[in-house]
Design a protein that fits this description.
Distance between the termini: 35 Å
Largest sheet: 8 strands, mixed
Shape: elongated
Radius of gyration: 24 Å
């Protein structure tokens, strides 16, 4: 990760050298002009450039005459009445993108015409951290900006009247940033580096934050009867793992809430092999597990007052002489039998055993699973919404609201008996695919058979976890989608 920031907050700051970032509401003056721009250079530059403070537009003034700083960047916020939480994140990301070679930056956040809250300030800082992220671990040649910084963090001071409260709010934002960055790193890692065992080690590392972690091996899963999950893994020389994380931040008597992630570290499709073109992207088929481990890191780092279980089903799906075949019938942990029609519909086989194990072991209030499950959801929704399937209207509504708050948006899709019939099998209790049509729905119907009456939601994040459109707070192939969404769900609804 490049371009890291050392961010602090202050009520006042003396402008001296480096970069000054001024914020401007459309139609208003920029913040901090008097001390930063005593000669009125910015006003003249804005007039020449026709800069009016439109959202995310910038005015960059180098070596401003008479100014105590080396450079002034004015960042537009747009109209005050239209500013929402996500706009502050985007503003932070836009500022981060323009830091360049500056070794220090002072951000004057209190723009005339808007009342800045501690949450706004923390969101701006979070946007800077997320916007600056890049995955360059395996590059031996860095770009000029990175070489100029020599790996040093850029010192950023955010000046605002609510500095004290912003510092406290930023402790939470830092935890969120760490969780998102962890998820992004895992999705971006190549599969030769990150196998099921290595992924499980990442989960185990959360113990240093106070998370209780158990790692189940194939031997333990076999004893539990997880033949659906194990069937996916049997073609790989790399053994599967089930990582079980438990954060106990709530009251002892409170039943936990649970999040389950599909962790297929690489998906060839197995015997039903995928086309070669684009198969390299299948290193990201563990985006659901990445989001869950990122969430658990965030909750533990910010000491969330909730009891939360996170479970990762970690496998590799490879073709081999020992690989699962189309037509094989396996028995899941639930006792239900599954005819494997297509070995590339493997994620649901992993999740069904993980869901059943979670429900039987922890008796959670609800379960939410995340998975890069189907290409069909991308056909339906593209890359701007993840698919939401649920058997519980309250849970679905809370997830939708959390998505709107964080801009990690969800769109609810249908479930129904007609779709359920599409996965009935002639030879087993069910088959693992219902054919070409309604593919994301029949996948959800499959998972629905393994949750009993527990409130449950399935998030199909195939279009949002990797290769999704970039924006001010994400320039990465792996987006970390789901971490902020689920943290907001927990924070808004389930903390005592």
């Amino acid at each position: 990760m490049a371009s890291r920031f050392d961010i602090g907050f202050a009520k006042t700051a003396r402008a001296s050298g480096g970069l000054a970032v001024l914020l401007q509401i459309a139609g208003q003056a920029a913040a901090g002009l008097g001390e930063v721009d005593p000669e009125g250079v910015v006003a003249r530059a804005a007039d020449v450039a026709k800069f009016t403070g439109k959202a995310l537009k910038t005015l960059d003034v180098l070596a401003p005459h008479g100014a105590p700083v080396d450079r002034i960047l004015v960042l537009g916020l747009g109209e005050a009445e239209k500013l929402g939480p996500h706009d502050w994140l985007k503003a932070g990301g836009a500022a981060a993108a323009r830091i360049g070679r500056a070794e220090k930056a002072t951000v004057y956040l209190d723009a005339p015409g808007v009342t800045v809250t501690a949450k706004n300030a923390a969101d701006f800082a979070l946007g800077m951290q997320l916007g600056a992220y890049s995955f360059d671990t395996y590059k031996t040649k860095k770009d000029e900006d990175d070489e100029a910084k020599n790996g040093k963090a850029v010192k950023v001071t955010i000046v605002t009247a609510v500095a004290s409260a912003a510092k406290k709010a930023n402790e939470v934002s830092d935890a969120v940033a760490e969780g998102v960055i962890l998820a992004r790193n895992l999705v971006n890692e190549p599969a030769n580096v990150l196998g099921p065992v290595e992924f499980a080690d990442k989960a185990k590392a959360l113990e240093k934050l106070g998370v209780e972690v158990d790692i189940l091996t194939e031997r333990e899963m076999k004893k539990l009867g997880m033949a659906a999950l194990l069937g996916v893994a049997q073609g790989s020389v790399r053994p599967p793992r089930l990582a079980v994380m438990h954060w106990k931040g709530g009251k002892d008597k409170d039943r936990p809430i649970a999040f389950i992630g599909k962790g297929v570290v690489f998906d060839t499709g197995g015997i039903s092999i995928k086309p070669a073109a684009g198969m390299e992207d299948m290193k990201g088929d563990m985006g659901g597990a990445a989001a869950v481990i990122g969430l658990m890191h965030t909750l533990a780092a910010r000491k969330a007052k909730a009891n939360v279980v996170g479970i990762l089903g970690l496998v590799e799906n490879m073709p081999d002489g020992n690989a699962q075949r189309p037509g094989d019938i396996v028995k899941s942990m639930s006792g239900q039998t599954i005819e494997v029609i297509n070995t590339d519909a493997e994620g649901r086989l992993v999740l069904c055993d993980a869901l059943w194990y979670c429900n039987e072991t922890f008796k959670p209030q609800f379960m939410v699973n995340l998975a890069t499950l189907t290409g069909a959801i991308m056909v339906a929704l593209g890359s701007h919404h993840a698919g939401l399937f649920s058997n519980d209207d309250t849970l679905a509504a809370r997830l939708t609201a959390a998505g709107l708050s964080t801009n990690e948006r969800l769109w609810r899709m249908p479930l129904g008996r007609e779709y359920d019939k599409m996965i009935d099998s002639k030879f087993a209790d069910m088959k693992n695919t219902g054919g070409r049509y309604a593919g994301s729905i029949t996948a959800a119907q499959f998972l629905h058979r393994f949750v009993k009456d527990t409130p449950w939601a399935h998030l199909d994040i195939a279009g949002t976890a990797m290769g999704s459109p970039t924006d001010e707070i994400n320039q990465s192939w792996g987006s970390g989608f789901g971490v902020r969404l689920l943290d907001e769900l927990v924070r808004a609804n389930y903390e005592g």
